[in-house]
Amino acid sequence: MLKQLSGMDSLFLYTENHRAPLEVGCLQIYDPATAANDEVRFKEILATFQERLDRVDLFRQKLVEVPFSLDYPYWTEDRDFDLEYHVRHISLPKPGDWAQLMAQVARLQARQLDHTRPLWMAHVIGGLGNIPCFPKGAFAVFMKFHHAAIDGATGQDLQAIMHDREPLPADASSYRPSIGPGDDNSPGALNLLARTPLNTALRSTKLGLGLLFALPGALRMALARDRKSKSPVPVTVLNPGRVTPNRSIGGRFFDLEDFRAIRATCRGATINDVALTVIAGGIRYYLEARESLPEVPLVAGCPIHVGGSMDEARGRPNLLSIMTPSLHTDISDPAERLHAIRDDTLGAKTSTAALGKSTLTRIPMNLPAPVARSLYPLLVTLGVQSQTLLFNTLISNVAIEHGPLYFAGAKLVRVMGTAPPFDQWGAFHTVVSYGDKVSITVTACRDMLPDPEFYAECIEASFDDLRLATLGKPATRKKVNRKKKGAARKPPVVKLAS
Predict the structure, then answer these.
(1) What is the number of alpha carbons within 13 Å of residue 220 lying toward its C-beta?
(2) Are 250 and 456 in contact (CB under 8 A)?
(3) Beta-ladder partners of 253
(4) Alpha-carbon distance 250 to 457, whole Å?
(5) Are strands 139-146 and 320-323 parallel, antiparallel or unpaired?
(6) Closest CA to 150 of 14, 25, 306
(7) Do residues 161 and 56 touch, judged by C-beta distance below 8 A?
(8) Which of 80-94, 95-109, 346-360, 389-403 bottoms out in mean pLDDT, i.e. has the lowest?
(9) In sequence order, what DSSP letters do the residues of 111-149 get, joined into one string?
(10) Poorest-confidence range of 27-36, 200-209, 220-229, 482-491?
């Protein structure tokens, strides 16, 4: 079935480059103790994937371009689809510890997907024998998709589709490798060109209406800014003008119950506000250690799924807006910072509502394809050259259903997200809640953040500070006590008593 990418989907194709592919990932840790014989074989994993292929059309669909880029690309079924190309098995070398797992996921995140095939990959990772917080015999599955095919909301739906609610055994005998090419249903060039005039006319009409509807809200936002002007977004080490193709990843798991208890101490706060406060404290520690913390507070860019009908997105619900709350990194007291962030996110939501969340998507959704293909890369280049920032770091929050969930009979026990750093924004934070845990992960340009484990320790120390300030609970982990070799900097220290 032929489906066209929306303008928002195509934005992720047009703005990426070989240094910064726009791909999102998910690292999932499984406990095989619930599977038959307390183990899961790779062929059983292949069989489970194969059984679910028809449930999600993006698994088999690849891109086809319109000649001369006169219109947005289309999704069409890959007649040469090969599951064993997309699902692979690797193993960590001994000792199989946390640092090795993060380094391996960073390498996989850095590899750009092949645009001549369906835009996803899954790597089954074994050899996790020296990670204490993982069950014995645990294995990981790192899945990666192009952002043109999936966003946070569709990622949540995909989790439900890929998993079972009980440990159903996998039937390895049902697996059959791909046999020869299928029917070629790809549309011809003339077919695609014939669709272009009507598509362009419809988008131009929607674009004009979108600009008309956006005008009143934009005026209200401009007046609000005049009444309460904000300082310019500072440039930090997190904001290289140009990222390299190399990636680093670091992350930590926290108890969801602690996040809920902290949220309850600040009326009107959300789990997302608590996560923003923890990340802000971690950034503050990290920049202080590098002696580069600006006096002006950093700003976050938080993607928002704005919903909308499937028809509006041409079958792909990739409808995103963004809010830009301050992280208040100028506030040292974590409880005070939580209240300030709560106020700022409420204000950002109010501003977005005044403009209209869906209004913010109408321009990228409906720009003519030739304009979009040239305009988006130009805007990125101009932003890098002018060092003009809208925010310092992207922070995405995804909640997966409470669970428990199972895959090939194995229980899903931990989830971490990865996301693409980009020119000007060299660090992307993902917050994922599943079961009784919350993970905070940073995916960064390695040249900008060469010490992801130290950064993760800073996040950990920030959480301990916030928990002590709001709940009076002292830290149970070791104090952060690490200096980067050759760097004159003080590591963060968690105070256990006031």
Answers:
(1) 12
(2) yes
(3) 439
(4) 9
(5) unpaired
(6) 25
(7) yes
(8) 346-360
(9) SPP-TTS-SEEEEEEE--TT-TTSPTT-EEEEEEEETTT
(10) 482-491
CA-CA distance, 137 to 463, in Å (whole number)? Answer: 30
Which residue's structure tokens are 């009980």? 166
**Cα 200 to Cα 70: distance, rounded to the nearest angstrom:** 9
Q: What is the dihedral of CA 312, 318, 324, 329, to 10 degrees?
A: 170
Q: Kindly report, residue by residue over 349-404, the tens digit of the pLDDT.
A: 666 554 555 555 666 677 888 888 888 888 888 888 877 888 999 999 998 877 79
Residues 6 or more apart in contact with residue 391 via CB below 8 angstroms: 233, 299, 300, 301, 324, 425
Joined together, the tokens standing for residue 281 give 């404290």
Chain centre distance of CA 254 = 18
Residues facing residue 215 across a β-bridge: none
pTM (global) more than 0.70: yes
Q: How many angstroms separate the CA atoms of 164 and 157, rounded? A: 13
Strand order in the sheet with 61-64: 3-4, 74-77, 61-64
Distances from the Cα of 139 to the Cα of 27, 124, 168, angstroms: 10, 7, 17
SS3 state at 305 = strand
Question: Confidence band (pLDDT; 50, 70, 90) for 237?
Answer: very high
| pLDDT over threshold 60, residue 190 | yes
